[in-house]
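Give me structure tokens for this 374-residue protein.
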Amino acid sequence: MSTDGVGLRRALVRALRSNGALRSAPVAAALSTVPRERFVPAGTPPEDAYADRALVLTRDDTGRPTSSISQPSMVALMLEQLDVLPGQRVLEIGTASGYNAALLAHLTGPAGAVTTIEFDTALAAAASRRLAGSDPPVLVRAGDGWLGAPDVAPFDRVQVTVGVDDLSPAWMAQLREGGMVVAPVTLRPGLELSIALVRSGNELRSASVQPCGFVRMRGPHAGSSGCLVLDDGVVLLADWATGPDTERLATLLGADPVDAGPSGRLPDGWAVSFALEASYPLVLVPREPALAGRPGLYDPDGGGVAVVDGDRIACYGDPAAARLLRERLAAVRPVRETALRIVAQPAGAEPGAGPPPGCWTVRKAHFTYVVGLR
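Here you go.
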């Protein structure tokens, strides 16, 4: 296999076309042109720079990634969702190394404009150096991306490349009518979606939805998804949990679980409807990113937790939680993330006729999400 940048970019484009992440000629041209090796950590071998996996840039004190360069498949999928046209004004939230901003600059071309915001000042400075000479010039800012960039708005496209619990009202306010925001939103624990939303008046309507997994946003508006790091490094995600709940859950999950038997055969796509329909869903995310998270639920009556662990059910505390989980699993429907249709309305907006039958409603601090099927 070729180890020069041009050959590796050509090979990457072929691979992304083959796996379905890459469909359009403009995105293929951007990926074929922008040298990814310029944006990866120093010392990264060229073949690793173009491997289809994320590359970590920074970590926190526990060793968990706080910033990364997304894997090429995810980069391509989101850019396809974003559908940037020549001459458009684009805002990116989460600069990281600057690689995606360089791709955006290629897509919008000399007549366009790209602004990118990075919370980490050191990453922003490094990205600014790498992006020097881009055409169009990329405006790199260090700051809180939640606030957007009102002084250079409005934008035709807003791309968020860090995981969020909710959309920022600023992103919608700075988006033109008919413009699009693409963001990885955790609607419920275990259900993180890259949602392409088109502004239509005072609401946002999905054009496409893809499953995804992103490093979370940092800063005062980051939210938490009820995120709690346990003693063994496992992360608990439970968006319904408050202070007393998290303390109780941390104690409960600190004990060894009991094997509560097989989970039964689960259909593909079961986790989507489970996350949307369970009253107290949660996910245990292992310290090792390569391992899958374990979705489950909390039983508020008995105070127990049960999770799906491979083809088994693991129970912490009261065994009634395992029975409740088994009942919930028996009722799940197979739902593909790509089959979802989502409408986001500002929280507190005048209610309409209510969600159509068969839809789910997820209420967040800033937006209410009505989720249905295409």
